[in-house]
Recover the amino acids of this structure.
């Protein structure tokens, strides 16, 4: 969310042998409201007229009568019901030289586009074979690549025209290996995913005389950063080494928000080049989740970001003067390494909390540069850091050198057994990490699967299975044939779901052995019908394994949604555990409840919350499960992405964790669920790095008071809000997090932002409570942040930490909240 006035002074005076000193510079406080020229750090202040969005992008070539809830096609009679024998051999890696995704048949679609255009719209575009891009580097390729990005239906409007909503123009721009000379910028739009061959990533090489200030603009220029969703860039190398080191150039603008992916990209710049920046986000405000698995060689900055919050995972910089500079509220760096740098992380502009975990600096000047705030703001939490020189400098003064073996905290701390904050200026505390979460002493992390070790004959396009037709057309009930294919090929084939909407009317069972891969942001499984109507006995749309199963179940680049108002739909339930960490996982897989074409929740939910109980809950990790989740946005729509319908939607629950074996949550966001965003119920052994959330915009005085409209269907793990007086309307709002009967939770940087009451502004605190803890022990909560929420932590009904006692960041910040027993 938005916007700011700003004032800031950065004074960086760093010097390392061989690295040029960075000059001091001042940011004036009279910059234009659109913030385009801002550089971090700066402070965000919501404008007084800030209001919920009422419109999204118009979808003018929508098929208005595509209403699966009214006319659902039944699949042809020939369906397999029982399969007795397996038609394939178990998957074994065979290390092919080219990627299956390049050569598999791509027959995805934009399911709700008007039929006169739909068959002429291609989701997948190979820039070489379809658009003639020169992959030898001899001649300029940017026009061909831009043509591939821009193309709409061959007889229809192009993708820059704002006529297909946010969800109607999915496009995968595939770049085969090779070198592509760019003599001009590339511009992406919502729905664009630029994908290279991960086996031999293509190089996008800027010409020596590159004419513009960015090589790639990621942000759709038609819209603010906060609604730039569904944009991706992966498996490429962007190279500016031919451009003069002093020329001001950024390799990538990434002013985009949730449900985006920037992963597995290498940025090659001249060493310590004064003008080159790997990634910026300077074209407006933005609210992002994760950027992961990125390598920066050279440059003045690797990432130079301004916006709301991020987790940066597995970032490597080398020969980059400043690895990461961020202006915003929150930052997590997980598994980051900096080599030959003046500064690893310039967090002087991280106003709430910086968390750095399992990271290192080698031959660097300063590992973290921060601001000595003296209060709760500008908190810093470091854990397991290898660095031989200056580790933390606050406002220019070195306060820590050398390694951090355990946890180092600067900010407000609630020590074991203490119910009042203590401001600590760099206190060491012990975080006894659960062994089940670790790999080589670090929290386990992994890159999203590409399945590049498997050849194309080991991947099955679910739309091309003889005898078991599946359409992904947003109009056919696909339940039986999807189930038949998943059960027949589990363990034997990777299942590719081309873009489109796959309507299901009953549970899809994902058995052990499943590996599912979609076209990012374009492939949706969508629930419909009476099986999902009973809120007293919710049915699961996608059930991953059964209790007791151990094996592989990975889901990558998929989207889960509902086509109908389904108060009895639990979208995903995970029961299976992996034999190894990461065997069970969700990667760049998101949820969307309403706000998009093809769902009754888009068109019929302009009324009251009780008229639109659109889903029982999003995702449940049951007690037998063990899963790794990276990059997940669980969004109940606060506005219509594809038009101007009202959106007062009540989904019951966000993420329910009852898992005990080991759970990894790396970059998740849950927004606008009615009872809670996150619920740890009898959970154990959980690592969470970055949990961002927002309260439903409709909640608060003047509208339904929680647990309404779910009061008659609460289950034992739901908060019942009996801690609140009957008419206490700011108490009866969704918890950010409920923790009950749980232990060994390691939660780093949680954020709950509240902006509105009953869809309008609120003065001061919009909501009373953020986190409720009961009957739990061994909790290690680092970096808990709130905006406009009175109480940060409740123990039972006792208020322990308030926003006012921990004032900082966007509201309140607790650097460490430790409950050992
Ligand atoms: C930002 O504001 C300035 C000054 O009002 C204007 O010139 C510029 O075009 C705006 N940029 C964008 C991207 O809106
Ligand atoms: C709209 O969708 C319906 C249902 O899928 C289909 O029968 C009809 O032909 C489509 N019409 C147009 C104009 O796209
Ligand atoms: C940057 O320095 C490294 C280490 O000395 C070297 O390997 C690399 O080639 C240099 N990069 C450029 C673009 O000159």
């Amino acid at each position: 969310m938005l916007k700011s006035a700003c004032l800031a002074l950065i004074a960086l005076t760093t010097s390392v042998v061989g690295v040029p000193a960075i000059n001091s510079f001042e940011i004036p406080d009279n910059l234009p409201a659109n913030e385009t020229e801002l550089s971090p750090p700066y402070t965000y202040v919501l404008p007084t007229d800030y209001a919920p969005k009422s419109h999204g992008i118009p979808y003018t070539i929508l098929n208005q009568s595509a209403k699966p809830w009214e006319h659902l096609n039944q699949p042809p009679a020939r369906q397999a019901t029982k399969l007795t024998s397996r038609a394939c051999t178990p998957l074994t890696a065979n290390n092919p030289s080219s990627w299956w995704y390049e050569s598999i048949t791509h027959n995805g679609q934009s399911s709700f586009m008007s039929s006169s255009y739909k068959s002429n719209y291609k989701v997948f575009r190979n820039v070489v074979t379809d658009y003639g891009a020169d992959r030898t580097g001899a001649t300029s390729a940017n026009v061909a690549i831009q043509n591939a990005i821009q193309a709409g239906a061959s007889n229809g409007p192009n993708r820059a025209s704002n006529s297909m909503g946010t969800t109607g123009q999915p496009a995968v721009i595939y770049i085969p290996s090779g070198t592509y000379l760019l003599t001009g910028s590339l511009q992406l739009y919502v729905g664009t995913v630029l994908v290279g061959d991960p086996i031999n990533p293509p190089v996008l090489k800027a010409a020596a005389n590159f004419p513009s200030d960015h090589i790639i603009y990621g942000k759709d220029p038609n819209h603010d950063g906060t609604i730039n969703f569904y944009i991706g860039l992966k498996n490429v190398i962007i190279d500016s080494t031919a451009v003069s080191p002093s020329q001001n150039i950024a390799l990538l603008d990434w002013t985009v928000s949730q449900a985006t992916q920037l992963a597995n990209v290498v940025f090659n710049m001249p060493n310590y080049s004064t003008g080159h920046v790997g990634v910026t986000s300077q074209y407006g405000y933005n609210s992002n989740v994760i950027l992961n698995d990125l390598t920066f060689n050279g440059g003045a900055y690797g990432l130079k970001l301004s916006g709301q919050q991020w987790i940066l995972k597995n970032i490597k910089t080398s020969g980059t003067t400043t690895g990461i500079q961020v202006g915003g509220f929150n930052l997590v760096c997980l598994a980051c390494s900096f080599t030959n740098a003046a500064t690893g992380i310039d967090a002087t502009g991280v106003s709430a909390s910086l968390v750095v975990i399992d990271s290192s600096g080698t031959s660097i000047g300063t590992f973290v540069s921060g601001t000595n705030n003296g209060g709760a703001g500008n908190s810093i939490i470091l854990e397991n850091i290898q660095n031989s020189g200056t580790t933390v400098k606050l406002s220019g003064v070195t306060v820590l050198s050398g390694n951090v073996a355990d946890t180092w905290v600067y900010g407000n701390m609630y020590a074991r057994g203490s119910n009042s904050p203590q401001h600590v200026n760099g206190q060491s505390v012990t975080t006894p990490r659960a062994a089940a979460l670790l790999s080589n002493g670090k929290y386990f992390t992994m890159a999203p699967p590409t399945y590049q070790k498997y050849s194309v004959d080991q991947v099955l396009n679910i739309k091309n299975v003889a005898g078991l037709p599946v359409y992904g057309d947003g109009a056919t009930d696909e339940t039986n044939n999807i189930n038949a294919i998943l059960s027949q090929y589990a363990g034997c084939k990777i299942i590719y779901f081309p873009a489109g909407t796959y309507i299901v009317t009953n549970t899809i069972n994902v058995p052990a052995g499943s590996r599912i891969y979609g076209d990012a942001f374009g492939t949706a499984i969508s629930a419909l019908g009476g099986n999902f109507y009973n809120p007293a006995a919710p049915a699961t749309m996608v059930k991953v394994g059964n209790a007791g199963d151990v094996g592989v179940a990975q889901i990558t680049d998929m989207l889960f949604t509902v086509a109908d108002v389904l108060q009895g739909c639990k979208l995903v339930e995970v029961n299976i555990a992996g034999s190894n960490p990461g065997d069970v996982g969700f990667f760049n897989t998101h949820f969307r409840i309403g706000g998009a074409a093809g769902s009754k929740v888009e068109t019929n939910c302009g009324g009251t919350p009780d008229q639109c109980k659109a889903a029982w809950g999003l995702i449940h990790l049951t007690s037998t499960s063990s899963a790794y989740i990276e990059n997940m946005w669980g969004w109940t729509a606060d506005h219509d992405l594809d038009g101007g319908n009202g959106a007062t939607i009540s989904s019951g629950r966000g993420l329910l964790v009852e898992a005990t074996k080991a759970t990894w949550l790396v970059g998740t966001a849950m927004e606008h669920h009615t009872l809670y965003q996150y619920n740890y119920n009898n959970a154990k052994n959980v690592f969470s790095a970055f949990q961002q959330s927002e309260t439903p915009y409709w909640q608060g005085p003047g509208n339904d008071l929680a647990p309404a409209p779910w009061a008659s269907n609460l289950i034992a793990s739901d908060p019942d809000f009996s801690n609140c007086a009957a008419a206490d309307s700011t108490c009866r709002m969704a918890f950010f997090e409920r923790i009950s009967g749980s232990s060994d939770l390691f939660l780093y940087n949680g954020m709950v932002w509240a902006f509105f009451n009953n869809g309008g502004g609120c003065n001061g605190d919009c909501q009373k409570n953020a986190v409720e803890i009961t009957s739990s022990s061994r909790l290690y909560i680092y970096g808990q942040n709130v905006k406009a929420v009175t109480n940060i932590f409740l123990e039972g009904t006792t208020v322990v930490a308030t926003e006012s006692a921990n004032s900082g960041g966007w509201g309140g910040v607790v650097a460490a909240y430790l409950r050992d027993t």
The CA atoms of residues 572 and 619 lie 5 Å apart. The helical segments are 100-103, 115-118, 142-150, 479-489, 600-603.
